[in-house]
Design a protein that fits this description.
The protein is α+β, with helices and mostly antiparallel strands. The protein has 6 helices and 9 strands. A 6-stranded mixed beta sheet has the order 5-4-1-2-3-6, sandwiched between helices. β2 and β3 form a beta hairpin. The radius of gyration is 19 Å and the shape is globular.
Length: 269
């Protein structure tokens, strides 16, 4: 999927062990000037929802408001997307109470996220849902960073030209429909509820897709097919200029190779 060259591209993710428990957040911000920056942080006692929000807040905070560039933000958090685009207006009108009259969880983070969104106006933020653990390079890298912070062993963060970045951001994931969630009046505080609890958890099951899934990597002129994401990740991690992408069919493999400027014969059967 191609995007307008003047857009800011953002990936965010959060992770938490125990929920509540030690957590981490991560973001990738790619600017139209050809630079990219990884962000990350953690908390010893937090929730997944809070980490998802922190990732989004910190990412937006790095963007210069006066430049008025469209922002395309990819996240696997329905909590963040529905909260900021739907639920928050009702919460504010009721004095930060949900429809059941209970206090909205994470109010201070919602207020800060709203401040960041307002600060960037009139720039438009396009909130796009992407399935987690589905092999999309930006999302997978954010997950890796977030998990490392949750474990107290943070990854080294990259900041520099996109040409030197080992994550392929040239082709973006196709936006997936938002999963069905409970309404904002729910009080249990799960991942999809706007209710107010703070113990929501992110679904971490891997998407198997409709057909056999492979992962292609390209480094130092060599294309390799991997059967699993961990295998691919191990191959490209820390390798400058390495590219990688998920494929669900032979046709997708050919399309990926073409996007990298390669012939299908570059991949040995």
């Amino acid at each position: 999927m191609e995007t307008a060259p003047k857009s800011v591209i953002v990936f965010t993710d959060g992770a938490c062990s125990g929920n509540p428990g030690p957590g981490g957040w991560a973001a990738i911000v790619a600017l139209p000037d050809g630079t990219v920056r990884e962000l990350g942080g953690g908390d010893k006692e937090t929730t997944n929802n809070r980490m998802e929000m922190m990732a989004t807040i910190r990412a937006l905070a790095t963007i210069v408001a006066s430049e008025n560039r469209p922002v395309i933000l990819y996240t696997d958090s329905t909590y963040v997307i529905k909260g900021i685009t739907q639920w928050i207006f009702g919460w504010r009108s009721r004095g930060w109470k949900n429809a059941e009259g209970k206090d909205v969880a994470n109010r201070e983070l919602w207020e800060e996220l709203l401040r960041q969104v307002t600060r960037l106006k009139p720039a438009i933020i396009d909130w796009k849902y992407v399935k987690g653990h589905a092999g999309y390079a930006g999302n997978e890298r954010c997950d890796e960073i977030a998990v490392s912070y949750s474990k107290g062993k943070p990854e080294q963060l990259y900041s520099g030209p996109v040409d030197g970045y080992f994550v392929d951001l040239t082709h973006l994931p196709v936006e997936a429909p938002l999963p069905e969630t409970k309404s904002a009046s729910g009080g249990s505080g799960g991942k999809g509820t706007g209710g107010g609890g703070s113990s929501g958890s992110k679904t971490s099951s891997k998407s198997s897709g409709s057909g056999p899934t492979t992962y292609l990597s390209y480094h130092n002129g060599v294309v390799t097919r991997h059967k699993t994401w961990p295998e691919c990740e191990k191959h490209v991690k820390g390798q400058s200029n390495a590219k990688f992408k998920k494929a669900k069919s032979a046709q997708e493999e050919r399309e990926i190779l073409a996007s990298w400027g390669l012939d299908a014969r570059a991949l040995a059967e």
